[in-house]
Amino acid sequence: MSLFQVTKPKAGEPEKKSGVAVNGEIKLESASLMEQLRGEALKFHKPGENYKTEGYIVTPKTMELLKKHLEITGGQIRTRFPPEPNGILHIGHAKAINFNFGYAMANGGICFLRYDDTNPEKEEEKYFTAIKDMVEWLGYKPYAVTHASDNFNQLYEWAVELIRRGQAYVCHQKVEEIKGHNPPPSPWRDRPVEESLLLFEGMKKGKFAEGEATLRMKLVMEDGKMDPVAYRIKYTPHHRTGDKWCIYPTYDYTHCLCDSIEHITHSLCTKEFQARRSSYFWLCNALDVYCPVQWEYGRLNLHYTVVSKRKIIKLVETGAVRDWDDPRLFTLTALRRRGFPPEAINNFCARVGVTVAQTTMEPHLLEACVREVLNETAPRVMAVLDPLKVTITNFPAEKAVDVSVPNFPADESKGFHTVPFSPVLYIEQSDFREVMEKGYKRLTPDQPVGLRHAGYVISVQNIVKDKAGKVTELEVMCIKSSTAEKPKAFIHWVSDPLHCEVRLYDRLFLHKSPEDPNEVPGGFLNDLNTNSLTVIQDALVDPSVKNAKVLDKFQFERLGYFSVDPDTTTEKIIFNRTVTLKEDPGKV
């Protein structure tokens, strides 16, 4: 089932095409994200018309609460992006960010960034900061940055009220006893209200050990889970509230009530939260507070990766990757470090579309979006990753000359940069072969080549080798391209270059589904690609990039798209290969 309904274009309007995934391949260009998220194209209720949504529970107070809600919001669309600050956002979160912020933006509304900070054991400042950075990097500005912990006092008062109404009780069953879909009913379910009130107060005052008591709500969820926990005891200082609390609310209790406090109109979440929809509606109505509508959509996953926080931590701890921003991962910080433009990630999310069905895409479809953006935005420079020295014996000038190179050869209006052209230059080892082979079009003793942008064709006069017989230098003669026979190929080169380090990345895992025990017996750590990172310490790049800043992006002609890594120092620039110029069929 899709969240989108088909709308026919008006007379005279062109039909918009949407990205449709067929066997993992996107067959059509997608409409822009904003076009997809216009309110009229979605089966969403209008603000204040929550009651028209299928499954929405109408109580005697619903219409009065919706009227007050409209008075507060003025009929404005309100969404929120509610991440847990216990890890770094990944590519799946990019879809959630685009959907929540994009839907509000497309319809003149607002979106909150709300941290679901109810588990102090796993929360760290670096995660709060990184989450906000990634939201803004993707181009969105939160209407306000809020925290579930902002509402701890109100949430506690509502919990007390829930007990008073006979809808919650203090339970002493252990976590192990209530796990699964058919746990035994709690023997404390019908304990007197006054007793639960006293015990809950005792929980707040620290009279119980962790795991000795919980507050549970009296309802059965869609998946059969009975009486979900509303509060549990944790003697861990909170990132923002310190030691004030030793009881903390759960997601099942907190989320819908924070949505109510912020007067969210559309609570957008991924499909796995559908089983919590009943508790969402039940809790708001049990307390007689404004009840938003929860809408579910399919998660976005990629093959050849893991995005679980626990598994990424394992990869870091075992040294398989350096950290959360290792460019082989698909966290957003890793993609930024590798050089993926935020526009490309947003375009990818738009092409995937917003559907209820879970979508698992091939990484090369994301890389195709990256190439589209970088092709228009990354200036061309020349670099050599495996250098071979070339000496021009008849260099046509007494010293080096400047050669003008277009930043974008297809559009010279975007400017030029200059590179030196001197008697000594460097080409790729792979651009020379001592023995001619069929189909080889680059430099051989019998086959000259042109030098990109230089205006010269070179031909081999002498081959210099070391004691082991390895070619170390070519001595060549040059002739102006205008007077030479047109060569079969033009190759890139560098002269008076900068030394740099280049990091080449391949897939981190060998199999499409590294978490699938049928595909990878023994777990995802047994599926690591040992060749996922190649470091070239002595690559050469033309000196036009000497003032490049971290995350600046370039196309190295004939080699791929590259981005300046944060490890760069004043002594040495370090480049990450973002993507190749075209999809590499030889990838593992």
TrEMBL record:
Coiled coil, from the record: none
Q: CDD domains this protein is in?
A: GlnRS_core (cd00807)
**PROSITE patterns xrefs:** AA_TRNA_LIGASE_I
What GO MF annotations does this protein's record show? ATP binding; glutamine-tRNA ligase activity
Which reaction is recorded as catalysed by this protein? tRNA(Gln) + L-glutamine + ATP = L-glutaminyl-tRNA(Gln) + AMP + diphosphate
Q: Where do the Glutamyl/glutaminyl-tRNA synthetase class Ib anti-codon binding domain residues begin and end? A: 378-476
- What is the protein name stated in its UniProt record? glutamine--tRNA ligase
Which species is listed as the source?
A: Hymenochirus boettgeri (Congo dwarf clawed frog)
